[in-house]
Amino acid sequence: MPAKDATVIATYSRRMRVRFDDKQEADARIKGKKLKPVCGDIVVVEPIDGEADWLITSIHERSNELNRPNLRGKVETLAANLDLVVVVAAASPKPDWFIVDRYLCAAENMRAAAAVVYNKTDLDNAIDPDNVLETYQQLDYPSIACSAETDDNLDPLAELLTDRTAIIVGQSGVGKSSLINRLAANSEQKTATISTKTGEGRHTTVNSAMISLPRGGVVIDSPGVRDYAPALQTPQQAIVGFREVHELGEHCRFANCKHLREPNCAVKQAVESGEMDERRYESYRRILALTERINRDRY
């Protein structure tokens, strides 16, 4: 049997689950130690004599990658070939909007669409006192407040995911797997309650998995995080990652303005006048500082 292409739909360390063009699925393992396929990859697989498993021998060029620096400062790829990054926050655990901004920054640099979901609106404390969702809406990010528990307002999210390859990301415990369970009738992703001891979410999705959706399209369920940073190489990538900073920066005095202490900076003026959200500007500053520190430590 000749080699053929397949899509990686689940990862289990060095073992994978792949789907062929005819929708048939098979288990596969990786040839050698250098190959590192991720969910969404299109790979070349070969049959193994006398075994049901297939062997992944190479990875086709990716259209984009969702990356992060690991603890050693090296770039780690989480998923590939994405049309949409859906960042989930929730009433519980307490939302960290800086993490949301970091994922949005990654999506901008990947040239993938992005959206923000605020889950668990059924909870008593499900309020957005600072109108953060409105800020994202003003930046043209689809922003959806919903509840996986009660099915409230899930249809806009289902419509957004239709016919796309998407990934759902966010803090542990915000209900990513619960949302997928509601959106995909054939999905049985693990869920868990919030840890009452720490107030943080328990990690329930050990490996990434790609789930087909009834309306068409697929969504990748990814492990929850307590922190995230995009793997950026330059200050310019941090600027590109914030739509309003990138747009306002066109009016700065200096072409290489970092929007920190430079004179006649249009971004700083916009913050002072209230045209740009102050928290988003602080988020930009944090990502810029983190990017410079990571790259300084790397080299």
| Helix share bin | 25-40%
| Main beta sheet | 6 strands, mixed
Coarse morphology: globular
Low-confidence segments = 189-206
* Count of beta strands: 13
Which range does the strand content fall in? 15-25%
Order of helices and strands: EEEEEEEEHEHEHEHEEHHHH
Structural class: alpha/beta
CATH homologous superfamily title of the largest domain: P-loop containing nucleotide triphosphate hydrolases
- Give the tally of structural domains: 3
Helices, by number, come to 8
* CATH hierarchy: architecture of the largest domain: 3-Layer(aba) Sandwich
Taking the alpha carbons of the first and last residues, their distance comes to 46 Å
Please identify the top-level CATH class of the largest domain.
Alpha Beta
Mean pLDDT: 88
Rg: 20 Å
- CATH topology label of the largest domain: Rossmann fold
Strand order of the largest sheet: 10-9-8-11-13-12
Describe the model.
The chain is of the alpha/beta class and 299 residues long. The protein has 3 domains: 4-59, OB fold (Dihydrolipoamide Acetyltransferase, E2P); 65-221, Rossmann fold, CATH 3.40.50.300; 235-298, Orthogonal Bundle (Ribonucleotide Reductase Protein R1, domain 1). It is 26% helix and 25% strand. The chain contains 8 helices and 13 strands. The strands form 3 sheets. A 6-stranded mixed beta sheet has the order 10-9-8-11-13-12, sandwiched between helices. The radius of gyration is 20 Å and the shape is globular.
